[in-house]
Amino acid sequence: MSHRSDVLFLAWSRNGGRSADIAGALGGDAVCVFPERLGSRRLFPLRYLVSAAITVGELAKRRPRSVIATNPPVFPGLIARAYCAVTRARLVLDSHPTSFGAKDHVTSQRLLAVHRWLARGAAAVMVTTRDWVDVLSSWGARGVVVHEAPPAWASQVPTLVGDSRGRVLFVGVFGGDEPVECVVRAAALRPQLTFWITGDLRRCPPALRQVAPENVTFVGYLRGEEYRRAVAAADVLVALTTEPTSIVRAGYEAVYARRPLVISDWPQGRAVFAHAVPTKNEPASLAEALDVATQPGRRERARLDAARAEQLQRWNQQEEQLRDALGIRRAGEVDESSETMAVLS
């Protein structure tokens, strides 16, 4: 007999951390589809066909009562919309800034009408900032700000002890909105620090590796335990973006793991990560921010615990909005309307 999920989070992505963490917090399941052998850009049509077949199979097997579908790409949302129309399940979109055409995402710009249609038919659309909530409102759709659930591995990261070893972890995937060159040039200004840069080396510009100083190591794309160990070994996490409306997942991971954090100096980021050190996406500014972030006071347990507590409180509020949109309750909660009907009968 197949297992029926209360909620299924569908993502077409190499990194399934977000979908797994949020689904876990909701008591649901996550399916992250990315056929690695078809990972090159020239094979993306075949990858999408295979991904679509896998997605349809998972929906048929799990028969969820509600579905969250990541966008971009728009196709998981289209498949989920068809499933929900047939089964009367609820649909929630997880629309990242690129799905609105931000970061010069040409494909999403061309498919914006499809995104708008999906959003209007969804119970809600998860977004990063209130700006996107306003855009959705103008479309006649409901937007809810939902960031990152606490990852299970973060509780396993040991507390910082002793003096700083000067290890800086820049988390990225060599995406178009990541100022990696800024990090490399900042490393040249702070030779006493050790810089680790994550991301698939196949996407790293060769020229960037050639100009990197000796204190920079490109560690590749890290998953699971490898990533946890990298966070545990770091004294500071750096999460930068050139997109003002992005709330970088690595920033949340740093706070959950009780690590000092450096972020790009955007108003939305400062509001979310009030305890982080902001920097311009410029080498000199980043070097100065790292001077602050590696000070002993930034490593105090009370400061790091306070940042984590604020973040957990924010997530709890966001989770309640998401549960309301999905029509699911926490274990042990009673549907008051059903209870009232039972009494009246």
Order of helical and strand elements: EHEHEHEHHEHEEHEHEHEHEHEHHH
Distance between the termini: 34 Å
Could you name the CATH class of the largest domain?
Alpha Beta
Helix content: 40-55%
Strand content is 15-25%
Low-confidence stretches: 335-345
The total strand number stands at 12
* CATH H-level superfamily of the largest domain: Glycogen Phosphorylase B
* Rg over C-alpha atoms, rounded to the nearest angstrom: 21 Å
Derived structural class? alpha/beta
What would CATH call the architecture of the largest domain? 3-Layer(aba) Sandwich
In DSSP terms (H or I, runs of 4 or more residues), the helix count works out at 14
Inertia-based shape:
globular
| Total of domains | 2
Mean pLDDT: 93
Biggest sheet: strands side by side, in what order? Answer: 2-1-3-4-5-6
Question: What's the assembly state of these chains?
Answer: single chain
Structural descriptors:
single chain; 345 residues; alpha/beta; Rossmann fold; six-stranded parallel sheet; 12 strands; disordered C terminus
